Amino acid sequence: MYRRLLKRLNEQKVRKADEFKLEISKDLSVMNQTIQDIVGESDDIVQRNFKIGANLKASLYFVDGLAFDSGIEDRIIKPLIYFAETNQEFSTDQLLEHLLTEVVTFIELSVKQTFDEAILNLMSGETLLVIDGIDKLVLFETRQFNQRGIEEPESEVIVRGPRDGFNEVLHTNVMLIRRRLRDPNLTVQFGQLGRRSKTDFALVYVKGITNMDLVEEIRYRLSCLDEDITMETGVIEQYIEENVLSPFPQILRTERPDKTINALSSGKVVVVLDGTPFILMAPITFSDLMKATEDNYDRWHISSFTRMLRYLAAFMAVFLPGLYIAMVSYHQGMIPTVFALSIAGTREGVPFPGFIEAFLMEITFELLREAGIRLPRPIGQTIGIVGGLVIGDAAVRAGIVSPVMVIVVAITAIASFAIPAYNVSITFRLLRFLVMISAAIFGLFGIVITYILINIHLVGLRSFGSYYTAPFAPYKFGEWLDLMIRAPLILLKNRPSEPRTLDQKKKNM
Questions:
Q1: Are the beta carbons of 116 and 20 closer than 8 angstroms?
Q2: Are 31 and 23 in contact (CB under 8 A)?
Q3: 8 Å CB contact between 255 and 233
Q4: pTM, full prediction
Q5: 304 and 394 assigned to the same domain
Q6: Number of folded domains in the chain?
Q7: 276 and 392 inside one domain
Q8: Are both 244 and 122 inside the same structural domain?
Q9: What's the mean pLDDT when you consider all of the chain?
Q10: 133 plus 199 within the same structural domain
C-alpha cells in the first residue's frame, strides 16, 4: 500500500516537471524573468533587487500580507547588504553555505533545486531569495498569520474542562495538541491537499500506540484525494470515509483539544487542516458518538447516569414520533384506556390522520431549526423559541394538530439535542422520517422491521477497518465498563479493542 503511495507521488512529481519544463539558471536576469512568467501579473508579489556586499546581485520575492515584512528587512536584507567580503576564495556552493550559516540570522530556511517546490512555498508565505551565479533557490520561513484568538468552541458546549478550542491556523492547532501531549512519540507529518489550493494539513498519531497499517491507510486515502480546492475537513471526510451511502458518520470531528488528546491516546489518527477549526479523528465506533469528554471529568455515578440518558434520548429521537403514529393509527388497544380516551378527545376535530399530523409538525420544526441556524445568533435563538411556541399554540387552536402531537414533537426535539455529536444527531433526524413512514404503512411491525434493518446496516459498517458496533458486536463484555455506563477510572485499565492498537494497556495497576 505504501509503495502505491510513493509511486503516485513520484508520478505527480514527473507530471509537474513536465508541466513546468523550467530549469534553474545561474543568470539572475533569466531567473527573474522565469519567476515573473510563473506568477503572472500578481501585484501582491513583491520583488526587491539588491546587492550582496559590493558586487553580487540578488533578488528577493515575497507575498505581501503573508510574509513578515520587518523580519525580512532586518534578518535577511540588511545582513546581506552589509556583508563584508573576505580575501578567502569561495566556490559557488561554499559561498551559499557561508551566507546562510554565518551572515543571515534566520533559523528556518531551506534550499530548493526545482521551481515547482520553490514557487509553492513562496505562495504560502515564505520568502524566496535568488542569487546571481548560484543555480539554487533559497527559501526563508517568514509566514505570518492574522488569526482568530484561542476561544471556547462554539459547536461543542463545555460543561467542565478546558475552555480553549482550535482556530483556523494549522500550526496553532498542532501547538495546542503538543501542549497537552508531550510524549516524544507524538508524530506530526505535514502535507498538502488540493491541486490549486495546496492547503496544508497535518497527520497526527502516537507512535507505539497507533497501528501503522491504519496510518498508512489514511495517508493513502488522503493522497488519492484529487480536488482543485480543499477548504474544509468536511470535504476530506466525504472522500475518505468507508461507505458514502451510509447516513452514519464514520469519522468524528471536534473543535476541542482535550477530546483530540483522548482520541490519540486511544490509538486513533487525527487530521488537522489549515483554514478550519474542525479536526477529524478516525476510526470511530457508534459508542464514540455517544460519549462526551466531560464523562471523564465527573464522578462515575454522574457520568453513567448522563450516558444512559443519551442512549434513551437517541432512541426517542428516532422512534418516538413513529410509535405515536403506530399507536394512534393501528394499535389503540395497546394504549391504557384512560390515556387512549384522552388522546381521542384531543384529536377530536383534527382533519388529518396521525402520519400527516406528525409529518407537518416535524417539517415545521426542522424549518424553524434551520432558520435559527442561518439567522444571526440573537435573532436565531428568538426565532427558534418564539416560532415554536407561537406556531405550536396556533396549530392547536386552529385544530390542525392535537396537543399530544405537539408534546411528542417537542420531546423528540429535546432528545435530539442531547446527543453529543452533532453529525449523528442529524442522522437520527433523517432516520426519524423513515421510521414514521414505516409506522404509517405497517404500524409497529414497520418500526420493528426498520429497527432490524438499521442494526443490520450498523453491524456491517466499518470505519477504516474497525467494527462500527464494537463492543456490542463483536461482543466484548470487558469493554462494557466504558460503554452505556462509565465505571470508576481505576477499573479502566485497557484501551478499546477498536481500533486495534500496538499497546493495549492504558495503565499498569
A1: yes
A2: no
A3: no
A4: 0.83
A5: yes
A6: 3
A7: no
A8: no
A9: 86
A10: no
